[in-house]
Each structure stands twice: as C-alpha cells, then as structure tokens.
Specification:
Helix content: under 10%
Number of helices: 5
Number of domains: 3
CATH architecture of the largest domain: 3-Layer(bba) Sandwich
Radius of gyration: 28 Å
CATH class of the largest domain: Alpha Beta
Strand content: 35-45%
Distance between the termini: 21 Å
Number of strands: 30
Amino acid sequence: MAHAYTPGLKVLAHTTLTKERRLPLPGKILVNKGAKVRGEEVVARTELPGNVQTLNIHGLLGILPDEVEEAMLKKINDPIKKDEIVAQSKGFFGLFKSSVRSPIDGVIESISKITGQIIMREPPIPVEVMAYIDGEVVDIIQNEGVKIKTHGSFIQGIFGIGGETIGELAMVANNPNEVLTEKDIDKAFKEKIIIGGSIVTYNALEQARKVGVKGIVIGGIEDQDLKQFMGYDIGVAITGSEQVGLTLVITEGFGKMSMANRTFQLLKSLAGKRSSINGATQIRAGVMRPEVIVPMEEVRDSKKTADISTGAGLGVGMAVRIIREPHFGAIGKVVALPVELQKIETEALVRVLQVELEDNQVVALPRANVEIIEE
C-alpha cells in the first residue's frame, strides 16, 4: 500500500500524553516523582536576575572617578531603597554637601574607580511553572523541570492566541454551524471555556472578555475581527503571549467555517469537565498547534487509546482536512493513494491522493494539500 507522511491535526477521544514543564533558568523543583498534581499547582520555581541600572556618581557629585568609593555611603552587596541616599560629597568645610539618591530598590552590584559609576540591580523576578494539566509526575529534570503524564481527550486547532488557562468546558452552540454572538454570552460563563460553532464575532469576543470567560473554542474567525480585538495585526511568528484577557482556539480556519462534526461532538461529550487549553501557535519550523486537553482519571477502553508521540503515515481510510483551495476546510476520507506522479494545474508532477468528501464527491489533489485528522 502506498504510504506517505503529512502533518497531523489530532482529535483524540482517548490518548496518553506527556507534557514537559521547564524553567527558563535552573531553579527548585517543588514536587516528587510519582506525585499527583493539579493543573494550577506550581511544580517548579526560580528567579530571573533583576534589571540593571547605572548611576554616574562622579558626574553627579562633581568629583574624580577615584574618589567615588570614598563618597559612597553604601558598599557592594548592600541593599538599597528607592530615594535612599547612596553617595554624598564632602562639601565645603563640611557644608553644601551634594547627595545622590537611588532610583530603585535593589542592591549595589559594583563600584568603579575607573568610570566613576556604580551598577545597581533591581530585585530578582520570581518565575513559577504550573503543571498545566492534571496528571502524574513521571520524571524530574534536575533543577530544570518535570514531565507530567495524563490520560484523556486531546484536540488540536489550526490557530490560536493567548496562553495556557484552565477552566470548565461549557457548550454554547447547539450545532457546529451556529454563529457565536454577544447575545449567547452572559455572566454564567465567567471562568468557563466556552464552545461555539462556526464563527465568533468581534462583539462576542468583547462580551466574553467583559464577563470573564477564560477561553473560546470555535470553528473560525474573520481576520479583521481578530485584528480589531487584539488592537494590532499578527505577523508570522509565535502566538500565545498575547495579553488579551482570554485564550482563543480556532479549529478550522479563517472565515465562517463550521466546526468539524467529530470535533464538535467530542467537545459536546466533554461539557462540564475541567480542561486545559493553550492558544500558542507556530507555523514555521517546529510547528506548534493550539490545543484543548481534558484529563480523565481512567481510560474507558484501552483499545481506543492512542499515544500522541507516535506519528502516523497517510493511509487509505484516514480522515483528512483539505488545507488548500478550492476545497479549503473540507473534511473527507482517503480512498486511494496512486503511486504514479500526476500533473496538476501548475504543470508540476506530484504525488496525489483521492479523497471522498462528506457529500460523497471524490476529488484528486496533491498530498501536500491535506492534513491528517487523527482520531
């Protein structure tokens, strides 16, 4: 049978996945191997060095650089407070003394007789890493982080914004074709992750932010609405660090696009459960997908369990999504994988596949134009 690899968009009802949670700098690990953790639990902690500021003491006091050390009231490693006097001139017969006050809270890091300057460092910035998912700590990365394993449902989207958040899934749409509007969102959805249908409007996004919705999972969004909501246009970069008040996961693409029925039905079956979502997206090398993870204590049927670390090739019978025009966004099933190269509209010779769409139409297209939907 012909076999090829194509990027996969995972929609898994039952899976096992492991998340690596790392600190940006070496620090302290707060949990032990084998520990059961909740998504909100802090598992590792460190401190980033504070910002550095310099003060030109010799210039401010009108003294020579080699006289700076003598004028200092604070020494190296001494703590300082904002507006505290750190250096003072001798003055004229003990009078008319000039002073220099600290612009920050911090410590004196160095005093230079060469430049006549001192270097001060602001207090360290604490950094904490949360577990993000409910699960078990299966490995400790010494002084750096942990690996957490969980069982549950895993759904990947096409695009997203906003970082990691945790909340209860709540259905808003009754079917995957519905438009999510501001009228659908009220205070009952505060702290929830809401599931819509085909598209979310700008006014709905604003209403969700206003009432305190943690996240939205939706089929599509108009580019201009996203730009208006964020206040700027998104370039070709990594998303996920946006401070917009909520996390948004788009499952299908830009424009009004009904959420894939299998995705919608899976999310519907998970309504009311705790979910961890992340809108981080990267479309360059090292592709990163936005995700929805719903941990479960037990996997009901081990035969249906998949491990997301295993990559599958493209095969007959697989569900795929078409990611190029003219059938962009359509979902179907692979019915044939011809081995022979075939000429396409651009006159290029490429390997193709035949896909049976949901309306029973069979289309032939380049294999690069589809994405596997793993179930």
